[in-house]
Design goal:
The structure holds two protein chains of two kinds. Chain A is mostly beta strands. Chain A contains no helices and eleven strands. Chain B has strands at about 5, 10-15, 20-25, 35-40, 45-50, 55-60, 60-65, 70-75, 85-90, 100, 105-110. The chains are: A mainly beta, B mainly beta.
Chain lengths: ~110, ~110
């Protein structure tokens, strides 16, 4: 079974631009969560989508948004990029029920200049 | 507000030794405690997880010890191997378990 895939793997943007990252979950998984990983703040939860609905949300500004499609693929968007948005963005998928393992993708490394 | 505190930040262990990483949490509503292993350039991978109704769980060389009254849990890696050299994260979640709060990570190096 194929793992979680994320595209693109690397991205360079400038301040003020917007970016869209994509995540394809493991087949059959209905939950997709997004995390931001930085050296300073560590791993932080952004949001979770389950069956096309946002089910959980972290403490990030409204510039960070996401959506999920009927095939469970998910995208996250960051508008008006800031230097501090430079990070590894990780997507994780699971079946969506309690205690089910979240499987992480390799991440998209975003650099904002 | 850091809800899960992890220590040590880095750890060097000799091959065959025991690696111990500790975490403490504040939110008593947490009811799912996984440990993840991350290698450079890769996403985190689940190692082992525990729920608060169990005090210990063992899977192969990995053991979680859980102390509900102290709000602490730890990962023990027995017979540590160079291939175990990675960054380890503890985490905690409530309810559905998909909103993970991570510790700050421990960089483990196992020397020959």
């Amino acid at each position: 079974k194929a793992g979680v895939t994320q595209t693109p793997r690397y991205l360079i943007k400038t301040r003020g631009q917007q970016v869209t990252l994509s995540c394809s979950p493991i087949s059959g998984h209905r939950s997709v969560s997004w995390y931001q990983q930085t050296p300073g703040q560590g791993l932080q939860f952004l949001f979770e989508y389950f069956s096309e609905t946002q089910r959980n949300k972290g403490n990030f500004p409204g510039r960070f948004s996401g959506r999920q499609f009927s095939n469970s693929r998910s995208e996250m968007n960051v508008s008006t990029l800031e230097l501090g948005d430079s990070a590894l963005y990780l997507c994780a998928s699971s079946l969506g029920t309690f205690g089910e393992t979240q499987y992480f993708g390799p991440g998209t490394r975003l650099l904002v200049l | 507000q850091q809800q899960v505190k992890q220590s040590p930040q880095s750890l060097i262990v000799q091959k065959g030794g025991i690696s111990i990483i500790n975490c403490a949490y504040e939110n008593t509503a947490f009811d799912y405690f996984p440990w993840y292993q991350q290698f450079p350039g890769k996403g985190p991978a689940l190692l082992i997880a525990i729920r608060p109704d169990v005090s210990e769980k063992k899977e192969g060389r990995f053991t979680i010890s859980f102390n509900k009254s102290a709000k602490q849990f730890s990962l023990h890696i027995m017979d540590s191997q160079p291939g175990d050299s990675a960054t380890y994260f503890c985490a905690a979640a409530t309810g559905g378990g998909n909103k993970l709060t991570f510790g700050t990570g421990t960089q483990l190096k196992v020397e020959l």
